[in-house]
Automatic annotation (TrEMBL), chains A, B:
Residue stretches making up the Anoctamin transmembrane domain: 231-659
Species this chain originates from: Knipowitschia caucasica
InterPro entries in the cross-refs: Anoctamin (IPR007632), Anoctamin_TM (IPR049452)
Family from the record: Belongs to the anoctamin family.
Protein name (record): Anoctamin
Residue spans crossing the bilayer: 240-265, 271-292, 345-368, 388-410, 431-452, 464-486, 535-557, 624-646
Subcellular location: Membrane
GO molecular function annotation: chloride channel activity
């Protein structure tokens, strides 16, 4: 049963397993539609890349129609991919879903897909160029028929794109499901997903390469940097940029942590000494974000996503509306009036967010009351236990904050879904904005209140420490250990089950079991939560760390473990995600920059409030405030000027991009010149 | 002598003079190089568009070489244009320069030039598309052989581009001038200009059309809007955008002026009532700039410059350096190390600017001293004459400011030239920045001092009025009347001279005299000074107008006359400028936005300082300041959020642009699909 299909091969750059099975797959595509058992006999030549899971009671006619459309030639409107049912459609056990399909394709198909997508690859001269089949031989690492030229992540991304752009022709609905309406041009996969007929579509892990990646990434304790290129090779650019940012952020914090330690050790109780630290904070948070943009551009250029043009964005799977004609494409598709969406945003979402902010403010006030009680209790009879009691309100508050954030997150997702955004990017932006505002308020409101209304620096330091430590512990637990523990239990169950059925000689699972195992793994929901966590940490460090110099040290420590736990999570806990060809960290760059502007304001205020500075203006507090405000405005202006002055893309890459642009202009001119000369020869 | 060459025709859309002389000019190009008299015999068919003026003692060999290169076929590296010497090389008088050359070309050459330049024209379906010869018939207004399709300004722009990209082949220097070095790829025209062999290159006016434009623009008093499309048609997009902005700015000021009048009449002495006016200012200055961006995008889309790709930028004519290889183009060209330029900027230019600012501060202090003397004089013996004396320091200061601005302007130009920028755009940015900072400081420093240091609102109002009125009068004089008067004197002299030689039957000058007349006209130096003036006016209105509500009224009146004087200046005083295909007002948008941010700060401060608001915080001035600062930060944040929220391009144009993008992607895909199907047919 289930012949062990080789899962590494022509896509990955796998020097250990030379692949000889890349040509001649075309035969597979010619098989007639339907569930072919015959195909499995030649499965030694088939490299499954992506898994499609349909619900177990999917109607037979829908399945055979879908498989036919996937296998059909491109000029007939098909995707021209190879597809096979896992385990020949016979479920090993009754409870198992038989409708798992493996998808692969020929090398030639992948290369033409890479050209369609406009993937950028390294050229022989070291520059990055859009891949074309016509001059494929001039690309670096293109040997023979192109085996190993594309990474497996790229192959899977291409297949995903081809599947998502598989469009209905003249079908009015999915066969067998009259309620699942189709219209010419509608993406079939998106309709299957939105109607719940398709459970999921995910790329398969590459066990061998994953092992190597894990080893070089987190299985050995080391102080060297992460293997970003390998991460990109396996998980794609979006993931790699996240890990790059995490690492960059950690290293950027090290100077601050180094300054923080002696501060903490020697001047810990000397609050009026924090001015220098605040000034350092000001400079630091302005510069690191600018430098990150340059570093990120360097990475994105090397990975070929910097100058890649985005394809036309399709509507989200969940988007609904009345059928009409898209004014851009002229295609029939659901339309939803923008006015209605704006009404939903401004009349429901905005009031809801404001209500939540009010609620969060209310919770904060309760916290301050509890804090007051605990302190008065401690002041009456100070014992060891009451000393601990003082910290308890902060801990409870930190836990409540995390819970509120979690609940709010679900509400925000629901609301943003309900706002019915046409594009995934617009959906993401609205979601990020909602979540950010609330999280920012929830996490920092109490600190702002303590710092600027109560002006109690001792309490501020204490609250900051408690919030930071509690949220770190909670995060690490919720993010890595909990899913790991759940996953481990599930895995063990499965392995035990498999062992019961057959004796495993080597530790590797047979393909069928491996696919089922991966299908059951949790889905990685993108880098959203990871960035959000970094954003809040950045806030703790940049806004108030001058009163608690150990904050940077704590964040650095947290980030070091975060690298490991995130890496572990990506490799072992979650399904492999599709790669996401990101050129930058997107809306998060903006969020971090907004935070750094707020940091200028808080740090200037903290400096203005420090006894050290106050001593310079003994007679007039008004003078002090005016000076503080003037200097703050000056720093803000300088910050904006710096943002303009420092180019976002380093000079060498600017030159490379300009060169490419220039060459394409010249080529166009030359082509036109040739045409005119030929024309003038014809018409003398 | 000098046969009257017809100067309107195939380029302009001139319905009065049908043109029948557009084909068959090719013959002209075939004439052998050198100064051909024969060519003039068929000059009835030649439409001169651009004039080249070489110095009168240019060596014969340089002229014949240049003419040969201009006439040579494109595949030989020539410009393939037609060129003729004005008046057959025989100067009518001894003092006149014989080396004026008229340049024209065939219709076909212009159309292919338009394609090279990527000019956007209106398509049959109403969208704007890049012009191509292949589907020229599908463009709107393309009839027959394309007569009247391109405006004369476009034709002249194409010729300018073709002349500027006329490059040296294997010449090592300009014949006859061994010191005028050339290297392969160097633009010949730029070298001639930088060595002073070429005096100027300018496009000719189109007398008929200019008359019509003048009439509809400024010769009749009317309240309707300016004919922006016609201005663009005659002068190009850069000019039309300036006049569009001037008009937009004027209309945007009208509500403020309308509110200002009753304020002035009834509440004039009631300084604590200015809060409402300041709040209005705040909202006004934020919104109008955002709306202008949208309006400007609409104009630029309609004129085809919004989505036009910029061609590769050539080095400026004055740029010098050691010969090396440009890393982008790979061509040999002078290189100048960026470090050296930065050193010049930061070690010379920046200190110089700071020194000038200090000097300006010093002058300001002298002004305040004079003001103090005058006031004390007036207070001792108040008569009518001392009442006038009080205004004299302000008037003197305003005049001194204008003079300082003028001197500084020359210094800034010299310094920026000396900084040796490679690109014209970089030169312009550095120049604008230098001039802006100084002008801002010079014009507004005294007002800031009065408002925030002296806190004397009466003096502020008085200074604002004097500065504004004086600078307006000075500007109108310097800008329009002076050049007009000079020009008129020159014109009269010339016409008298011509009359002496021959009796003019009609009022039109013969071509040769007309060309000489235009060659002697002052050169229009671009929109820089016009925008600068608007920028300062915008500053007066947005920063402090709440204390002097008549400011907006004065600026509106000034702008109405400014439209007329600028229009008059463009049409009658200056040489016709080459059109400049601008898509927006460039760096000025940024300057105006920076000013509106400063306006938020000043208006908030003025509100905070008003007795009305102070009354709300009777006991604590500190509270007042903190609230003012908090509200100011809130407004600034809102401003930035608004900038993000309001899309820069209106929705319908966004859709048009997306449609174009989508269509080109689809066309590419279809082409690729066809290639693959053909390929698969060949290789079965």
């Amino acid at each position: 049963m289930s012949p062990k299909v080789r899962r590494q091969g022509f896509c990955g750059v796998n020097p250990l397993r030379p692949s000889k099975h890349c040509s001649g797959e075309r035969a597979l595509v010619e098989y007639p539609g339907g569930l072919v058992k015959a195909a499995m006999q030649s499965s030694e030549r088939f490299t499954p890349l992506v898994v499609l899971e349909l619900v177990s009671d999917t109607k037979e006619e829908a399945i055979s129609w879908l498989l036919h459309r996937i296998r059909d030639k491109q000029h007939n409107g098909g995707a021209e991919l190879m597809v096979e049912q896992l385990g020949h459609g016979e479920a090993a056990e009754e409870k198992q879903n038989p409708n798992l399909f493996l998808i692969g394709t020929s090398l030639q198909r992948l290369l033409s897909g890479a050209e369609d997508l406009g993937l950028f690859k390294e050229f022989n001269d070291g520059s990055m160029r859009g891949f074309t089949n016509a001059n494929k031989q001039n690309f670096k690492n293109f040997h023979g028929d192109g085996d190993g030229f594309l990474s497996m992540a790229e192959c899977q991304y291409i297949i995903k794109h081809e599947l998502e752009t598989l469009r209905a022709k003249d079908e009015t609905h999915i066969p067998g499901y009259t309620q699942a309406k189709l219209y010419p041009g509608k993406s079939i996969i998106r309709r299957l997903l939105s109607k719940g007929i398709m459970v999921q579509m995910f790329p398969l892990h590459e066990t061998e390469e994953l092992k190597r990646l894990s080893f070089s990434w987190f299985k050995k304790i080391k102080l060297s940097v992460q293997p970003l290129d390998e991460i990109r090779h396996y998980f794609g650019e979006g993931q790699a940029l996240y890990f790059g940012f995490l690492e960059y952020f950690t290293f950027a914090l090290i100077p601050m942590a180094l300054i923080g330690v002696p501060y903490y050790l020697f001047d810990w109780e000397n609050y009026d000494k924090y001015v220098i630290f605040a000034v350092f904070n000001l400079i630091w948070c302005t510069i690191i974000l600018e430098l990150w943009k340059r570093f990120s551009a360097t990475l994105a250029y090397r990975w070929g996503t910097l100058s890649r043009k985005k394809a036309f964005e399709e509507p989200r799977p969940g988007f609904h509306g009345v059928l009409g004609f898209n004014p851009v494409t002229g295609r029939e598709e659901p339309l939803y009036p923008n006015v209605k969406r704006q009404l939903r945003v401004f009349c429901v979402s905005v009031p809801f967010v404001l209500l939540c902010l009010y609620l969060s403010l209310y919770v904060m006030m309760i916290y301050f009351q509890m804090e007051g009680w605990a302190l008065s209790f401690h002041d009456e009879e100070p014992t060891f236990w009451t000393g601990i009691l003082v910290f308890i309100p902060s801990i409870i508050y930190a836990v409540v904050i995390e819970i509120l954030n979690l609940i709010y997150r679900y509400a925000a997702e629901f609301l943003t879904e309900w706002e019915n955004h046409r594009l995934e990017s617009s959906y993401q932006n609205h979601l990020v904005l909602k979540v950010l505002v609330f999280n920012f308020f929830n996490c920092f409101a109490s600190l702002f209140y303590i710092a600027f209304v109560m002006q109690d620096m001792v309490l501020l330091r204490q609250s900051l420490a408690t919030l930071l430590i509690t949220s770190q512990i909670l995060n690490q637990f919720m993010e890595a250990f909990l899913p790991y523990w759940l996953q481990r239990r599930r895995n063990k169950k499965l392995i035990r089950k498999v062992k019961r059925q057959q004796t495993l000689t080597d530790k590797e699972l047979p393909l069928e079991q491996q696919v089922r195992l991966e299908a059951d793994m949790s889905t990685y929901l993108g880098t959203f939560d990871d960035y959000l966590e970094l954003f809040l940490l950045y806030g703790y460090v940049s806004l108030f760390s001058c009163v608690y110099p150990l904050a940077a040290v704590l964040v650095v420590l947290n980030n070091f473990t975060e690298v490991y736990s995130d890496a572990f999570k990506m490799c072992c806990v979650f399904k492999r995600p599709f790669s996401d060809p990101a050129a930058n960290i997107g809306v998060w760059q903006l969020a971090f920059e907004a935070m750094s502007v707020i940091a200028v304001v808080t740090n200037c205020s903290l400096i203005g409030m420090s006894p050290q500075v106050k001593a310079y203006f003994p007679e007039s507090e008004m003078q002090l405030i005016l000076w503080t405000v003037a200097i703050e405005h000056g720093i803000l202006a300088l910050k904006f000027i710096l943002t303009f002055l420092i180019p976002d893309v380093p000079k060498p890459i600017q030159i490379q991009l300009a060169k490419l642009e220039f060459e394409s202009l010249e080529a166009l001119k030359k082509k036109k010149m040739l045409e005119t000369t030929e024309l003038s020869k014809v018409q003398p």
